[in-house]
Amino acid sequence: MLVPEKLATPPPRQEIRFQAIEGVSLASILQLPDPHFVSRADAHRQLDYIDGYVRHQALGCKSVIVEEHYIDRDYIEDYSVFYSKCLTSYANFCRRVHFFSLLPNELKKELRRLRHLRSQSEQNSEYMNACNMFSDSHYIGFAVIKPLPGCPVGRTVLRPLPEQSESGHVRKFKCVCDFDVHTLGVPLQVAGLPFQQQDLGVSACATTALWMCLHRARQLEGGSLATPSQITIRANQFTLPFGRPMPSEGLSLDQMCQAVQSLGYSPSLYRSKMYDVTRALLFSSLASGFTPVLILDSRVSEDRHAVALAGMAIKRSAQNHNTLELRHRAEDMVGLYVHDDRYGPYLKATIAKQEEKFIVRYQLSNKTEDWQLTHILVPLHAKIRLSFGELYRAGLKLLHSEIQPFLQAIGARGTTTWSPRIFRSHIYIDSLLKRPGMDQIVQRLCETVCLSRYVGVIRFETDALDAFDVVLDTTSTERNLDCIAVVQLGSKKPVTSDLCSMIAKTYNAITIS
Amino acid sequence: MPVQKKRVRHGRATRRKVLSTSDPKFQLRFEKARRTWEAKLLSLAEAARSSEQLSEHDMAVRINARA
Fold this sequence. Notes:
The complex is a heterodimer. Chain A is an alpha+beta fold. Chain A contains 14 helices and 22 strands. Chain A folds into 3 domains: 16-192, no CATH class; 214-380, Cathepsin B, Chain A (Alpha-Beta Complex); 388-512, no CATH class. Chain A has helices at residues 26-30, 40-43, 45-54, 73-81, 104-120, 124-138, 205-221, 228-235, 253-262, 275-288, 388-409, 425-433, 439-448, 495-507, and strands at residues 16-20, 63-70, 94-100, 139-145, 153-158, 170-172, 177-183, 186-192, 251-252, 266-271, 293-298, 304-314, 324-328, 333-340, 344-354, 357-363, 368-380, 414-424, 454-462, 465-473, 483-488, 510-512. In chain A, the strands form 4 sheets. In chain A, strands 11-12-14-15-16-17 form a 6-stranded antiparallel barrel, surrounded by 4 helices. A 6-stranded mixed beta sheet of chain A has the order 13-18-19-20-21-22, sandwiched between helices. In chain A, β4 (139-145) and β5 (153-158) form a beta hairpin. The longest helix of chain A has 22 residues, at 388-409. In chain A, 45% of the residues are buried. The mean pLDDT of chain A is 93. By secondary structure, chain B is mainly α. Chain B has a domain at 24-52. Chain B is built from 2 helices and 1 strand. Chain B has helices at residues 24-50, 56-60, and one strand at residues 62-63. The radius of gyration of chain B is 30 Å and the shape is elongated. The chains are: A alpha+beta, B mainly alpha. β9 (251-252) of chain A pairs antiparallel with β1 of chain B, so a sheet runs across the interface.
């Protein structure tokens, strides 16, 4: 015997529970203990929010599977750094709850069918397709439940609500990550932006918001994930303006940037000064699939808060066709979906303009909360030297120097809509291929143009012209900005090629039409 | 009776009017419009530039809202 019998602990035993959720709360299913010095309502606010979210009509959760023993990377790292050193013993493992839109008996039957299919199907792809179809139809996501009574919600990945909303706007979630999950031998998939609540031991809101947003940055480039304790440690590596790093006393913007930089990303930072510009920068970041962290200033207290953005609500508004006008695509953005660690994931917020201030408004069940957006922090890949602000200014330059004067000179009417975004070049190519009749243009583009790893794409659309993209090299900077190509996305309006050729000649780019 | 000649149109209505960007009249209109649009969009460009200029105060503010 290698270990004396008295010291030996048996290996952990897994226990799996299926439970219908109708008429019973998630907190009751999990039988969570009450925290001693925090009210149950405060400690379980995020859990109750998740409970309500998964029961939303569009998701229709009917049952859960509870895994009683789950090792979560984020928690075990936090445990190693912080909770293992407490006098009171906390468990080093969590529980994991999976949410499904099937009743327990139907769910058991479906999982059995999929396991059986594995031995029956000769092709691996047949089995994987069946599992993916099952995930698409019935799997809503999972929540890790930490053994901490005052902050039980750990890493939680839930599917966002469907694109079409009941109130007529369109939900856009380009900042989600793909997760492979395994339960009861069946591989499942869910796409969502991870969420967790702040524990005020290892992380406060700033750390948690960065943790959420870095998941998305990692999805674009691969690499290892940073846990909350790693983010807090790196943020406090060189400066301690607020005293001890743990228990977390919050971070400054400077420290947040330090953490982002030390984790291999470039912190791109903006101050909110003019409403239209702030809205445009947020739109570009979300439409490009880069999760921004918002720094919010309370309108009623001294609090500063950090949240991560998961998506936006879009509502197309009527356009003027009688005069020559200009509008940024961001004008269609009517709301934001916020991962707020004080409440929960995908919290809907409306946006409002007060003078030039950008107001983020939560419509909660019992109150309205207004926050003023002061700063935006976007972690970018180091090769993206062109910021969203510089891309925006490049778009303005093209509009006032070439596009609008050209349209006015030919007597065109209508509204020019423009939207600047940054894509991985292969994602941009793929987005072009999704448009009908673009295969020839894509072939010409790939055969003649060298694309940078990430490309800045400014799309211009107006009734008088075919839509076209101006493609910029993001490894260049504003002073030496290189225009790679002008890509014409149609051939119905011949005057478009005159303008595209003119732009290409001025900026020494290649025209693709 | 003299035979009436049929007038034949050679598709002029469908032919595209060729736009010459080097035409002086076009250039004049273009330059005038450029000055107008530059003035219109100047404030947005300046606001975008100043949104990227952060002070020490911006960087030092403590972010610590609690649940």
